[in-house]
Design goal:
five-stranded mixed beta sheet; single chain; 52% helix; elongated; alpha/beta; four-stranded mixed beta sheet
C-alpha cells in the first residue's frame, strides 16, 4: 500500500473528531470570556482554525512518551509497552492485537480518491474566487473625490495611515458586488458598485470608509486568503465552515469597534450602518468569494447589539487571568487531541503474521499450559550419527496461545531442527496479556538434545 494513501487516511480519520473537539473548546471559551473583548474573541477563533488545519498532521505519541518517562523514573522493565492509541489496519487479515481495528484495504483507496477530489474542488474554488477578484478590479474605474467627500476620504486615510485607493464598478458592466468590499494583498483597493456613492450622504460614506479602512489596516483580505490556503486540507469538514463563520463574525465586530472610534461615536456609526444595510438589502449576494466587505458576515443583529452595549471591557489583572485560562484550555485541548489520536497501518495480509511484542523466554515459560518433548531422530540413532546440542527456535504465539509460526533461529542439523519444530507446534500457552488484553507475542524456545547411554 502506498505511504501517501496511509497518511491521507490517518489525516482524514483524525480530522473527523479533532475539528469538533477544537471547535467545542473555542466556542465554550469565547462564551465564558466574552467580556474580555472582541479582539480576544477573534484571536481565539483564529487559533482554533489554525489548530483544526494542523492538529491532524501531528503524529506525536503522547502515551509512548509518558511510558518512557515512567520507565526511566521507576527504572523497571515489564512485559508490555504503553500505548493507548487505537490503530486501524487496512488489510484483509484478522485482527491480532489490542486496540487494533481492521478495515478492508479497498476502503483506503476510496478515502484517498474522495479526499483528492474534495481537495481539487476547494483548490479550484479558491482559484476561481481569486480570478473573479482580478476580473472585477479590471472592470472598475478610479473614483475622483471632491468637496466634503474628499475631506472625509483624506481624514480617514490619515487616521488609519493608509495609501488605499477607491475604484467604482464601470457603468454598464454586470453587477458583481452588492456593496463596498476590500480586495488586494500588496496594494489594497476599495471597490464599490456603480452609482453607490451617489446614493449615500457624507455621514454614511464616512461609516463605509471607516469600516473598510479598518479591514485595510488589519490586512484582512491577505489574512483571509492565508486562512483559506492553510485550511484547504480540511476544507471538506462542515465544522471548519462553522469555525470560519465565527471567525468572520468576530472580525466584523473588531472592525466595527475601530470604525466607531474613527467616527468619534458608536451611535452615529450604528445609525449610518443601519441606513446602508437597508439600502443594500435588495442587492444580490457577492460573487467574489474572498473579498472582505462591510456586510461580509451574516451577523448584522449581533454587530448592532455589540455596538449599542455600553458594558466596559475587562482589563488589567482580570483580563490577564482570562487570557491565561484560554491558553491553558487550548493546551489541554491539543494534548487531548494528540493523546486520543488514531493511528493507521497497512496491517498484515491473509498469509502474513501480525506484528507481535517480543517477550523473553523466561517470561513465557510461566505461561506454558502443555508441552510435547521432541523425538530424537530415529535415523540418527539407527546409523549412530548422533549429535548433542541445542536448537533455538523463534516462535510467534497468537493471542489464543497457539504457535502460528515457528522457524529455526540457531540450527543443529536439519533432522534435529525438524523434530524440534514438530514438537513445539504442539505446545500451548495461556494468552499473554497486554494492558489486560490478550495479544500475540514473539519468543524463543531452546530445545536441547542429549542421547543417554
Amino acid at each position: 500500500m502506498k505511504l501517501l494513501e496511509l497518511w491521507i487516511a490517518e489525516y482524514v480519520l483524525n480530522s473527523l473528531w479533532q475539528l469538533p473537539l477544537v471547535f467545542g473548546a473555542a466556542w465554550i471559551v469565547t462564551r465564558v470570556f466574552r467580556s474580555a473583548g472582541t479582539q480576544l474573541e477573534h484571536r481565539i477563533w483564529v487559533a482554533a482554525l489554525l489548530l483544526q488545519a494542523t492538529l491532524p498532521m501531528f503524529r506525536f505519541d503522547l502515551f509512548e512518551l509518558l511510558h518512557r518517562v515512567k520507565m526511566l523514573l521507576a527504572w523497571s522493565s515489564g512485559g508490555g509497552a504503553g500505548g493507548g492509541h487505537t490503530y486501524i489496519a487496512f488489510s484483509g487479515g484478522v485482527a491480532g492485537g489490542a486496540g487494533l481495528l481492521r478495515v478492508p484495504s479497498g476502503v483506503l483507496t476510496t478515502i484517498a480518491v474522495f479526499y483528492a477530489g474534495s481537495l481539487l474542488y476547494f483548490v479550484g474554488r479558491l482559484g476561481r474566487g481569486l480570478w473573479m477578484t482580478v476580473v472585477m478590479r479590471r472592470k472598475t474605474v478610479a473614483v475622483r473625490w471632491s468637496g466634503d467627500r474628499a475631506r472625509v476620504w483624506e481624514r480617514l486615510r490619515g487616521r488609519f495611515g493608509l495609501r488605499g485607493d477607491c475604484r467604482e464598478e464601470s457603468v454598464g458592466e454586470p453587477v458583481m458586488i452588492p456593496g463596498p468590499v476590500t480586495v488586494g494583498v500588496l496594494l489594497q483597493v476599495l471597490l464599490v458598485p456603480a452609482g453607490f456613492l451617489e446614493e449615500i450622504n457624507e455621514t454614511e460614506l464616512e461609516a463605509v470608509l471607516a469600516h473598510e479602512f479598518a479591514h485595510m489596516t488589519r490586512w484582512d483580505f491577505a489574512k483571509n486568503l492565508m486562512y483559506e490556503v492553510l485550511s484547504l486540507g480540511v476544507a471538506y469538514h462542515p465544522v471548519l465552515w462553522l469555525t470560519r463563520s465565527q471567525l468572520a463574525e468576530s472580525r466584523e465586530l473588531v472592525c466595527d469597534r475601530l470604525a466607531a472610534e474613527a467616527m468619534l461615536g458608536r451611535e452615529r456609526y450604528v445609525r449610518s450602518l443601519l441606513r446602508v444595510a437597508s439600502m443594500l438589502s435588495d442587492r444580490p449576494p457577492t460573487r467574489i468569494l474572498h473579498a472582505i466587505g462591510i456586510f461580509d458576515a451574516n451577523t448584522f443583529e449581533r454587530r448592532v447589539m455589540n455596538l449599542t452595549n455600553r458594558s466596559a471591557e475587562v482589563r488589567g489583572v482580570r483580563r490577564f487571568a482570562m487570557v491565561a485560562a484560554c491558553v491553558v484550555i487550548g493546551a489541554a485541548t491539543c494534548v487531548s487531541a494528540l493523546a486520543l489520536r488514531m493511528g493507521v497501518t497497512a496491517g498484515a495480509g491473509q498469509n502474513e503474521a501480525p506484528k507481535a511484542l517480543s517477550v523473553k523466554a523466561s517470561v513465557m515459560e510461566g505461561n506454558i499450559i502443555s508441552r510435547k518433548n521432541p523425538v530424537y531422530p530415529a535415523d540418527a540413532k539407527a546409523n549412530k550419527d548422533t549429535l548433542d546440542g541445542p536448537v533455538v527456535l523463534s516462535v510467534l504465539v497468537s493471542k489464543e496461545g497457539i504457535p502460528v509460526k515457528v522457524f529455526v533461529k540457531q540450527s543443529l542439523r536439519a533432522d534435529y531442527d525438524q523434530s524440534a519444530m514438530d514438537a513445539v507446534r504442539e505446545w500451548r500457552w495461556k494468552p499473554y496479556l497486554l494492558n489486560g488484553n490478550p495479544t500475540a507475542v514473539k519468543t524463543t524456545i531452546t530445545v536441547n538434545y542429549t542421547l543417554a547411554d
